[in-house]
Amino acid sequence: MDGSRGVALRRARSAALVGLAVAVSAACSGGGDGGRDGEDADRAARPPGSHSWTGRPCALLRGASPVDGFALGTATDSAFPGDREDIGEDGARARHRRTGCLADLRGPDGSSWKLTTTASVYEDARAARHAYRAREDLDRAHGRGPEKVHADAYAIPADDRGRPGRTLLLWNGDLVLTVSAYAPYGSTARDVRKGLEQIVDSAAHRTERGLRASGSPAP
Q1: At a CB cut-off of 8 Å and minimum separation 6, what does 74 contact?
Q2: How many alpha carbons fall within 13 Å on the CB side of residue 71?
Q3: Closest to 100 in 3D by CA, of 214, 219, 211, 182
Q4: Reported confidence tier of residue 82, pLDDT bands at 50, 70, 90
Q5: Going by fewer Cβ within 10 Å, which terminus of the chain is more open, N or C?
């Protein structure tokens, strides 16, 4: 009897850990534990159109503070309604539409931060996955990381003329999203790391959620 109880407890604990891992991945706009070749079959198979293009990407960041103590200031939409092309696998011309936002942030002490988002919505999930992996390989080849956030997202350090920053890239279905944040001039990367992480994570989550098409399953 005691042996059976011990097995049951171990199974329950294992199930709880799996549930926690899934919850953490969802909080990061979708995760997964698939490998490079067989990764996230359910997400890769998600039908096209799980995200939609918008001509007002900055609106997705308004309505609430991006991070406690920070305020969104001037924001400029950068939207391209026409199709663009990537050279995909086997020379295929993968089409996508791009939209983005450039915004000023005011820190708790009045300091000036900067935030940019770029969302590329592809014609299908396979093309988006290829574009994301190609960018990841390029960043790795140039020694820029990456620092894995979860299976389908990574971060790299960034710099804007002396301003330390952080860039987050993620893939979710037919979406490839890039979010960058930059701290004030004179900051040190170590001192502002936590703030940069919070800003890019929040902006990525709100942008992905705002672009998710109605009825699309949440990651």
Answers
A1: 103, 104
A2: 7
A3: 211
A4: confident
A5: N
Cβ-proximal residues to 199 (8 Å cutoff; 6+ apart), any chain: 66, 67, 70, 105, 113, 115, 166, 181
CB 218 within 8 A of CB 26: yes
Sign of CA dihedral 168, 77, 217, 39: negative
Strands (E), the chain: 71-87, 93-106, 112-122, 147-150, 153-160, 163-172, 175-182
Which phi and psi (to 5°) does residue 136 adopt? -65, -45
Name the range with the highest mean pLDDT among 39-43, 90-94, 173-177.
173-177
Q: List all residues 6 or more positions away from 26 whose beta carbon is below 8 Å from its beta carbon.
A: 218, 219
Would you state the pLDDT for residue 36?
A: 39
Decide if 218 contacts 212 (C-beta within 8 A): yes
Amino acid at site 28: C
CA 195, 201, 206, 207 dihedral sign is positive
CB neighbour list of residue 146: distance below 8 Å, 6 or more residues apart: 136, 139, 140, 154, 155, 156, 169
More confidently predicted of 36 and 55: 55
3-state DSSP percent of the chain in helix, strand and coil, to 5:
35, 35, 30
Which 3 state secondary structure label does DSSP give 92?
coil
Q: How far is CA 82 from the centre of its chain?
A: 23
Q: How far apart are CA 25 and CA 152, in angstroms?
A: 10
